Amino acid sequence: MRTIRNILLLLAVLPFLPSCEEEGMDVRDLEIPDNYALSAGTSTLFVNSSYAYDSPADWLSGTYESRFIRGDKLYDDIRTSSNGHGGGLGPVYAGYSCGSCHRNAGRTKPALWSEKGSGSYGFSAMLVYITRKNGAFFPDYGRVLHDQAIYGVQPEGKLRTSLRCETFSFPDGETYELCVPGYEITEWYADSIAPEDLFCTVRIPLRHVGMGQMMALDQAEIETLAARSNYPEYGISGRCNYITERGVKSLGLSGNKAQHADLTVELGFSSDMGVTNSRYPEEICEGQSQMQGGSMMGLSYDQLDISTEDMENVDLYMQGLGVPARRNVNDPTVKRGEEMFYQAKCHLCHVTTLHTRPRGSTLLNGTGLPWLGGQTVHPYSDFLLHDMGSEIMGVGLNDNYVSGLARGNEWRTTPLWGIGLQEKVNGHTYFLHDGRARNLLEAIMWHGGEGEASKNLFRQMPREDRDALIAFLHSL
Length: 476
Hints:
Radius of gyration: 22 Å
Strand content: 15-25%
Helix content: 10-25%
Largest sheet: 3 strands, antiparallel
Oligomer: single chain
Number of strands: 24
Shape: globular
Distance between the termini: 29 Å
Strand order of the largest sheet: 5-4-9
């Protein structure tokens, strides 16, 4: 079915896009339909549907297209021993496939507002990081709480959430509400951890939009932005996050805090799904008290669950996805909203235009993707860390969780491309790292620290201009 869907999607966009099989095709050769605008060069797709994030870029062909389809299947398949790919789900896990948390390559609706945590069936689409208050890990758990398990094994615990809400007003009288999530862990599989010794922070999935372009970015341009993005009049000063993995220091680009230098395919299979691989060959629960001499509950694990080739196909799938074009670009309200976006100085962090390096990106096993090279892209992000403050409702967006060089109050500027299609793709409008914002207006009003000046400029606008700025964001 997925293959048929991909073919139909390609047929749908062919009237707009000529063949891109030749490497280095000039973006100027693309015929842009009326009322649309390119977002990601030759990877831009004019798809406005629930598959807007989950459609192949037009440059894919031949072997690359075949591998993309295999990666797509692995991304969505539930990891069981009968799926033809080696199984390997669990013994404990947080998600049963990549697509379980990233439905249609987007953000699966989290259980924060509906089930208030792990829910009736244990699945929350929320990733829970746990540590001691001093930052150390718990020997029986590790960095991630796995709230699901295969038959015969105990989940590590269950997440329970609560919400504390407060109403605020704009100067013109319009009201809005902000809510702070509270977290509690119940049903610990081992000894319960005292709340006073526990720190947890929660993430909901990121959209997998523009992953290939992000991996192909000209990193010197990002570092130049960090050196120059000092706007004292607005309290803004972005900085890079540098990561050392396997002895190599790299610029962090991926993740809520730019804490990864790649798309973490291998880590995701291991940590989120309990799938052993060449980079992470041990079971995620290795060392736990319910492990018994290399096995758990009598089950034996003596081979890797997924091959490096298969993981690279998933990496190719993620980097080969198209990026939805901007829509309604000639609409007067959207055009007014774009003016307000600049007037509020949102562009100082949500940088509109970046460039990819000439040779594109490289997949996790060394395969190059030159089609992603030499492109002008519009992610609306500088991919830098910014202090988002801790003054709102006493906590702000400070989660006290350190990632690489990123402090608890620092977050990578979220890329905005595709954000206006999230409701169509995933059926919800929950934003920010933990889904506390129920719409884009709330997301803006959660900005503190370096985002305080922009938030206040937005707050002082007439309602008509605020609505226009939101309409502009929905066009991205």
